[in-house]
């Protein structure tokens, strides 16, 4: 995670200055549809129970059929270590969950080359083998640029210190472009390639970064400069390509380089807790259509070959609501479950196949669902979904919905309005001034959704349709869908409790044959407007 210094930068401005600092322990009145702040340890996490009959339940539903397995490249990083000398069997425990548990190994250059020219990869290899024996995949983060990462002997080579960062930066970095540093870095990556570690099957990813004021060698080149125009950056990327020849897809960059993408490398960003960032961003396929709907352009280079594509969703310790961390997300933890929920949806909307978490979860059942969803394509995804929502993005106005192969669009007779306003705990830099809130539902008399034509290919398919709605008003809401035997309807009743509920309907031989954005399923209210938040279709 890029733990950038916030104070004085102007990225976040606290709302409600002067409130007493505290950590919430009770359900939040501001975020009543998400669980109270509680860190559930990994050992207590379980998938949500799959129920095989129509029903209506309180709350969200993240269940999938028990036979669903995670995608091979869907990596759920839930452990990390920077101590190469610590045996992993004392750190991690096998998890009986339908996910690919992953450990991130943060390894310093000084641990690999304590004596110049003498490379010690045996312990790193041992740790990868230990992780594999415990059922974990491995992602390697080799840290090199900071003076605390590089070997001690580097201090004698006359390499200057980078001066582009502020005096209060957390990390002091060598000038990585200096010949004395650069030549030895190149030899290190060559040695890594010769060690055979890149070809180890349990190793699923390896991070190539640059230098940064925060912990982790963030970025891919000098700040504010196109990395593809910098010769020593190109040479670094070439070295990684040679070291990972044949498995280039394991390499992921800490920033965008078109040259790196052409080598087959992926990207890891790392600030999805600010879930409205990178809107729009054509480089990662995030575009807006003429009506403000957030659209995923899967022809973007990053997505075309499904390379390593990562995020980090980790800033949920109590400390993030204290001055020690600049109150980055407000002065209490009451919003944390809502941000966690929304960030998880966003990273899946962006089609990530890797995400780094804490060693706990605020919504454990959703975490398991994320692990089962990472790395999926439209052809093999067990479910598709649409989060009906709206936020205001600076210079772009209203941005509608997070969608994953299920699309809601307004049309004549199917008009909707944003509903259920949720306030942001802080001001995010990408949000329109004075509009620090989200709408987490859409309200309408009739709401239609289109299934991506590639999912199921128009063939009759048994499905479960799950709709999370706000129980506001009274009267029935009717679901209409086509099947092999003709159109069928299902209904759920509203009783004006104000709760968030999820209705599930099992449909045999459903046919999603509508073309383009024509409606495959329709919700029609018999009474006041329906207020829908999240619609999911599960293939059985």
From TrEMBL:
Q: Which GO terms describe its cellular component?
A: beta-galactosidase complex
For this protein, the record's InterPro entries field holds:
GH (IPR017853), Glyco_hydro_42_N (IPR013529)
Q: Which UniProt keywords apply?
A: Glycosidase, Hydrolase
Give an example GO biological process. Answer: carbohydrate metabolic process
Q: Which GO terms describe its molecular function?
A: beta-galactosidase activity
| Ranges of residues in domain Glycoside hydrolase family 42 N-terminal | 108-192
Q: Can you say what this protein is called?
A: Glycoside hydrolase family 42 N-terminal domain-containing protein
Source organism of the structure: Pontiella sulfatireligans
